[in-house]
Amino acid sequence: MRFLATYLMRGRIQAIGMVTTLGLLSLIISPLVILTCAGVALVTLVQGYREGLINLVASTIILMVFTGIVLNQPQIGLELAIKFLLPAWFLGSIVLRKSSLAYALVMAGITGCLLIIGLYWFTDPAAYWHELIVTQLLPMLKQAGMQIQDGPKADTLWIFMSKIMTGSAVAVFLLVQIISLLQARWWQALLYNPQGYKQEFHQLRYGIVVASIAAVISVFAIVSKNEIALNLLLVVVAFMLFQGLAVVHSLVAKCKLGTAWLVGVYIIMLFTLQNGAIGVLLVAAIGLSDNWVNFRLRLCAGKASNGVS
Fold first, then answer.
1. Most exposed: 94, 158, 247, 274, by fewest CB within 10 Å?
2. What are the Cα distances from residue 1, in Å, to 4, 88, 253, 293?
3. Burial status of residue 35 (CB atoms within 10 A of its CB: 0-12, 13-18, 19 or more)
4. Is residue 274 pLDDT above 80, yes or no?
5. Number of helices (H) and strands (E), helices first, in the chain?
6. Neighbour-count burial of 3, counting CB atoms closer than 10 A to its CB (0-12 exposed, 13-18 middle, 19+ buried)
């Protein structure tokens, strides 16, 4: 990872080449889009808005040319840039301007919520997803040999899924952007301030105002089952997850619990994804409540006073 960060910082040509290469590879290996976005964000964080924008524009042009020649679809390169590289530059610019990781993540969460509200204001996302599931996804799964149940229960499931697919898609997009920004911030610290990222992430906190809005959305969604609110709730969970992780990481260090505790938390989150994502919800709830309770201040206070950060 350090090699990638060092190479990105060697010069403009190297940075553009790396971002473009990673972007093209991400069309084959999807998770590489995180490193692609992190590359744009790192250039922005270290070299400023203008250089980040130059990297973004140049990479977009090359991606469009390449996908146009090879795939005869230049819009694929443009879509990749608009969906992923542009938001990465935007978030990197916010951190650069405000010197606050928390502020950038708050803006990412707000953008995700506004996107959902906008989609419901101008379109009917549930109808779109239901048609996509029924006409494309289910036939494709059946053709692949999977047994798909039919009947009223199955129809009810597909209808419910179509109602929350917009929030799910935006939440995944938000996760990609936040992870990319964290990756870029880690790279930056790795090159120029080795202990900076750890301190910044351990102190990540959104504040009572943001947490109160998130709590209102969550309670309203659970009580009312309102479709828009349920989609916003998914974004809130994705957003609050990172403060929860910051709390966990900070307490593990502060309380001298050892790396095994962190590994355990991530394993629980991973293995409960198919069972209601209980682990993710729990960590997000910790992040939300931390804005009032302040776990990092209250727990292991004695050890902290003895010099444990």
1. 274
2. 5, 18, 23, 36
3. buried
4. no
5. 17, 0
6. exposed
In order of 196, 241, 254, 273, 282, the CA distances from 266 in angstroms are: 23, 12, 18, 11, 12
- 275, two tokens: 């069972």
Residue type at 280 in one-letter notation? V
- Rounded Cα–Cα distance for residues 251 and 273 (Å): 24
Q: Which two tokens stand for residue 286?
A: 């910790």
227 near 159, Cβ under 8 Å? no
Name, in order, each residue with C-beta under 8 angstroms of 273's C-beta and a sequence gap of 6 or more: 279, 280
Domain ranges of the chain: 1-99, 103-309
Backbone angles phi, psi at 17, to 5 degrees: -65, -40
Residue recorded with tokens 């419910």? 160
pLDDT in tens, 123-143: 899 999 888 888 888 788 777
The pLDDT, as a whole number, for residue 171 is 95
- Listed as own residue / partner, the contacts of 26-30 with beta carbons closer than 8 Å and 24 or more positions apart are 26/80, 27/67, 27/76, 27/80
Whole-prediction pTM value?
Answer: 0.92
